[in-house]
Design goal:
The chain has four helices and seven strands. The protein is α+β, with helices and mostly antiparallel strands and about 120 residues long. Helix 2 packs across helix 3.
């Protein structure tokens, strides 16, 4: 999709990236979290984080679990063992706010991941 924000999740210890196209609102929410910006009033993801804290739930991890008909799927995994289906963009925005790790299924990286070579590898000294 052209002119649509994209999140690139990088494989730990590898050179593959998982490209996930997201909406403009979710891109803003992710950018705010990455930059440590706090809006005057809580965004939806800030509100959800506050509710989790208020009810004593801890988001332990986010899993990007699959791709079906061009749509990525994710799960929120809580310390209580509860797993909740989510859009990857919302899951990523929440993970950034809670400091929770984000995991991509290996099969998903195999099928939908892209390799972006390190630019430094092409430099000549």
């Amino acid at each position: 999709p052209s002119n649509q924000p994209i999140v690139l999740l990088r494989e730990v210890g590898g050179d593959r990236y998982l490209p996930i196209w997201i909406g403009a609102g979710e891109a803003t929410a992710i950018a705010f979290a990455q930059q440590g910006m706090t809006p005057a009033r809580p965004l939806t993801h800030d509100l959800f984080k506050n509710v989790l804290e208020a009810v004593g739930q801890e988001l332990t991890e986010v899993r990007i679990t699959g791709l079906k008909d061009g749509i990525f799927h994710a799960e929120l995994v809580f310390a209580s063992g509860i797993e909740v289906s989510a859009r990857p963009s919302d899951a990523i925005a929440l993970a950034l706010r809670t400091g929770s790790p984000i995991y991509g299924a290996e099969e998903l990286l195999d099928s939908a991941g892209i390799a972006i070579p390190d630019e430094q590898e092409d430099e000549v000294e």
